[in-house]
Write a structure and sequence with these properties.
Elements (H helix, E strand, L loop, with lengths): L3 H11 L4 E5 L2 E4 H17 L7 E5 L4 H13 L2 E4 L6 H11 L1 E7 L3 H7 L8 E5 L8 H6 L15 E6 L9 E5 H5 L2 H8 L6 E4 L6 H13 L2 E4 L5 H10 L4 E4 L1 H9 L2 H4 L7 E5 L5 H11 L2 E8 L4 E6 L19 E2 L3 E6 L13 E7 L5 E2 L3 H7 L6 E9 L5 E6 L4 E3 L2 E3 L1 H9 L4 E11 L3 E10 L7 H11 L9 E3 L13 H9 L5
Helix pairs in contact: 1-2, 2-3, 4-5, 10-11, 11-13
The structure holds adenosine-5'-triphosphate and magnesium ion.
The site of magnesium ion (MG) has 4 residues, from loops.
Length: 515
């Protein structure tokens, strides 16, 4: 059985002097990471942290995250990494919700922590990474701990991670993932990705999200070198890929889009890349085709949720040939991993839908979360008595068993009794030469209940004429699917992992009304 703490013990014993982590100018071997996490564990124990206690972490990606992750895991405690893009109020909500005892904050987030000072209900120890002499130093506190492995017995069913979901559809939820959730299917699924001890793994997504933190575990499990990026920008990422000879990476569609737009795209050295896994939000066909052309490596799509410990569906590299006989599959999310069950059902009755007909995606596997933290009602609503988890996503199967993701149930528009899938309308709008990005939302309509409305971003140097865009949509779509209005904005609101925040776009239209 594999647990987070067994991973570090194994590699520290088998490859003590191999580099485990690199971040900027800093690096740690497996032996150093093991020793540092022992010291942190001892320091945590001295301030009263034990089995089941929560430690909150608010900083950009860095080595300290891994020291704390392995330290808490060795104690059976749980690290809660908080989204650093949130406001003070939202951070406070998560730290209090998690009932964190210790709060480790990066110096650049001290002003935010100061705003919170009176509002934290359970935190008794605050530590600062990289602060000045006036602040309680994380590094000094860590180095005061003893390098002794606490050797606490951990079971596979114990909680390994508490990730907060992205908050795309409401307040973020504390998702509890066990060691079995994380490592149960990982050996087979990562085989597909070809990660092994000789790989060089890029960790560019935020570690507070399952996309970053979960992907990091793939490299950690195999004992390869991981390169952690603190400040993510497209040009910097291209440089890191060349400099560190990155072989594997998990990236999101917005990043793949911008990595093609910058001048470095033409000069970057992508020759070390073996595979890029992408996912977390829908990818447009043009972004994917451009990335395949530009980077020249293998690509695989991943679909999953925080509640499913990340990827449960993969579109493998062999389905990524834009000229191949299966090129229609480039619009699919892929096939369920071995050991993952997926079905498409009518959300209200749970009845299974025939091939080709969209419905809600339900899944059952070893990767289904333990539950939501302190939210039995939410857990019962998410996972039924037979163990099926409702994803809240709409999709359908094709004849070959590939699943296509349409939209979220909450984003579907019902207009005069007809279902409108925003993704279908967005795909058409994106085909217009003046449109760089598009979101379609439901807005109130006295006649139809709601009607589709488009919010679009123009390509650099281009102008979007709303009426002309509507006329364009009319050529390709049934009349009821054509947006009743178009507004042009500079950028669409997204989460740090590139998820479109449609509820923010909807809010001004639905002010004071029920949707
Ligand atoms: P919240 O549950 O808090 O509202 P969230 O659902 O965005 O937020 P996550 O768990 O981070 O939080 O994201 C899971 C969702 O991301 C999925 O339900 C799906 O809508 C979307 N997603 C993930 N992978 C893909 C993919 N390959 N293609 C399309 N959508 C994807
Ligand atoms: Mg969700």
């Amino acid at each position: 059985m594999t647990t987070i703490s067994s991973v570090i013990r194994t590699h520290a014993a088998e490859r003590p002097d191999a580099v485990a982590l690199v971040c900027g100018a800093q690096s740690l071997t497996w032996a150093e990471l093991h020793a540092r996490s022992n010291r942190v564990a001892d320091a945590l124990r001295r301030v009263g942290v034990g089995f089941g206690d929560r430690v909150a972490f608010l900083d950009k990606n860095g080595l300290e995250y891994f020291e704390l992750l392995f330290a808490t895991a060795k104690l059976g405690a749980v690290l809660v990494a908080v989204n650093f893009r949130l406001t003070a109020r939202e951070v406070g909500f998560i730290v209090n919700d998690a009932e964190a005892r210790v709060f480790v904050v990066g110096a650049e987030f001290l002003p935010l922590a100061a705003e919170l000072a009176g509002a934290l209900e359970t935190v008794h120890t605050l530590l600062v990474i990289g602060g000045d002499a006036a602040q309680p130093s994380y590094a000094a506190w860590r180095d005061g701990g003893a390098d002794v492995d606490p050797d606490v017995t951990i079971r596979g069913s114990d909680v390994a991670f508490q990730f907060y979901s992205s908050g795309t559809t409401g307040d973020p939820k504390g998702v509890l993932l066990s060691h079995d959730n994380v490592f149960g299917l990982l050996p087979t699924s990562s085989q597909k990705w070809g990660v092994d001890a000789g790989s060089v793994n890029l960790i560019a997504l935020p570690l507070f999200h399952v996309g970053g933190g979960g992907w990091a575990m793939v490299g950690m499990f195999h004992g390869c070198k991981s390169v952690v990026v603190r400040d993510v920008d497209p040009t910097g990422l291209i440089r890191v890929i060349g400099e560190h000879r990155i072989s594997h990476a998990f990236l999101v569609p917005v990043l793949l889009h911008f990595m093609q737009q910058v001048p470095a795209a033409a000069t970057g050295d992508f020759s070390s890349l073996e595979l890029i896994v992408y996912g977390a939000s829908p990818i447009s066909e043009s972004v994917l085709a451009g990335a395949v052309r530009r980077m020249g490596c293998k690509f695989a799509q991943a679909y999953g949720l925080t509640e499913t410990t990340g990827a449960i569906v993969t579109l493998p590299p062999e389905d990524h040939d834009p000229q191949g006989p299966h090129r229609h599959r480039l619009r699919a999310a892929g096939k369920p991993h071995d050991g993952v069950e997926l079905k498409i059902v009518a959300p209200d009755s749970g009845a299974e839908m025939p091939v080709g007909v969209p419905g809600e995606i339900w899944t059952r596997s070893q990767q289904n979360m333990v539950g939501y933290w302190r939210n039995a009602e939410g857990t019962a609503a998410a996972i039924n008595v037979d163990g099926w988890l409702r994803t809240g996503d709409i999709g359908y199967f094709d004849d070959d068993g590939y699943v296509y993701i349409h939209d979220r149930v909450k984003d579907m528009i019902i207009s005069g009794g007809e279902n409108i899938y925003p993704a279908e309308v967005e795909n058409i709008l994106m085909k217009h030469p003046a449109v760089a990005d598009a979101a379609v939302i439901g807005v109130p309509s006295d006649v139809w209940g709601e009607s589709p409305f488009a919010v679009v971003v123009a390509r650099p140097g281009a102008t979007v004429d709303p009426q002309e865009l509507q006329a364009f949509a009319r050529q390709h779509l049934a009349k009821f699917k054509v947006p009743v209005g178009v507004s042009v904005v500079a950028a669409l609101p997204r989460t740090p992992t590139g998820k479109l925040l449609k509820r923010e776009l909807r809010a001004p239209f639905w002010h004071g009304r029920e949707r």
